[in-house]
TrEMBL record:
Main localization category: membrane
Protein topology in the membrane: Single-pass membrane protein
Signal peptide coordinates: 1-23
InterPro entries found in the cross-reference section: Autophagy-rel_prot_27
GO CC terms of this entry: Golgi membrane
Alphabetized UniProt keyword annotations: Membrane, Signal, Transmembrane, Transmembrane helix
Protein name, entry field: Autophagy-related protein 27
Location(s), subcellular: Membrane
Transmembrane segment boundaries: 198-222
């Protein structure tokens, strides 16, 4: 493998990983309400569904009358079968890769010809609650395309048992579409904001421990490679850390004496003395 080919392969891997990280981040939604935190992660694997709310086929499909909708959540669509074949696919992969350059595509029968319109991209994806009064009901994912401006709204309804749909397709305006389906990924992970989960104290403690670990590693590397110190002495400020337990013990005993008062057999300089 040549250097150029290796560089191209590495760049492709980095691009794929970036797209996965980006798509997962846009598919997360968090809401705090009534001392509870609702976490939705549509792109994260859950039991029996390793791809989260994504379709394992690479796309969802729903057809009503002469209109066909293909879409994928949290990612662009992939077609190993059933690839769309329609006119006007330039905004979603072009004729040879139709449907693989966007996240949602609609085909309408116009005068006997199937004409496609891109209606959504991952970069435009937003998430909100279906019903703000009942956060556990599910979320609605909205995405849109460029010119002409079209959009798709997908309601992911909470169903912890199975996946159902999508079966419906509605259109409002010229090219604003809406569909829905049931999926366990539409169910929020709920944690209490008080007494459970990772509170601010645990988070702060974790940050402090990480910074302390980085300090030890960087200090040890510097002393080993630049000061040529070997053995246990590579630990930065070793004398301070070795004396720290004794220092803490002394402070603790000082506090104990302060709160308990003078110990037995100890007389203050102001105590009365019998001659």
């Amino acid at each position: 493998m040549t250097i150029s080919a290796s560089f191209h392969y590495i760049s492709l891997l980095l691009l794929i990983n970036f797209n996965l990280i980006f798509s997962d981040s846009v598919c997360e939604f968090t809401l705090s309400e009534n001392n509870k935190v609702y976490n939705y992660k549509l792109g994260s694997p859950i039991s029996n569904y390793p791809h989260g709310a994504r379709s394992e086929d690479g796309f969802y499909k729903v057809a009503v009358n002469e209109t066909v909708l293909w879409f994928q959540l949290c990612d662009m669509m992939i077609f190993n079968h059933g690839q769309p074949s329609c006119l006007g696919c330039e905004g979603c992969g072009g004729p040879s890769h139709c449907g693989m350059g966007c996240s949602a595509l609609v085909s309408n029968n116009l005068g006997g010809y199937h004409v496609c319109t891109s209606v959504g991209n991952t970069s435009s994806m937003t998430i909100d609650l279906i019903d703000k009064r009942t956060p556990h009901a599910g979320v609605i994912v909205k995405m849109s395309s460029g010119l002409p401006y079209c959009s798709l709204s997908v309601s992911v309804i909470c169903d912890s048992n199975e996946v159902q749909g999508p079966l419906t397709l509605n259109r409002s305006g010229k090219c604003d579409y809406a569909t829905q389906f049931k999926h366990p990924a539409g169910c929020a992970t709920i944690v209490s904001a008080h007494g459970k989960g990772w509170g601010w104290f645990v988070t702060l403690l974790t940050i402090i421990l990480c910074l302390f670990g980085a300090y030890l590693v960087v200090g040890a590397v510097y002393r080993y490679f630049f000061l040529h110190i070997r053995g246990i002495d590579i630990i930065p400020n070793l004398e301070f850390w070795a004396s720290l337990p004794h220092t803490v013990q002394g402070l603790f005993m000082s506090l104990v004496r302060r709160f308990r008062g003078p110990s037995e057999g100890y007389r203050s300089s102001y105590s009365p003395v019998n001659f």
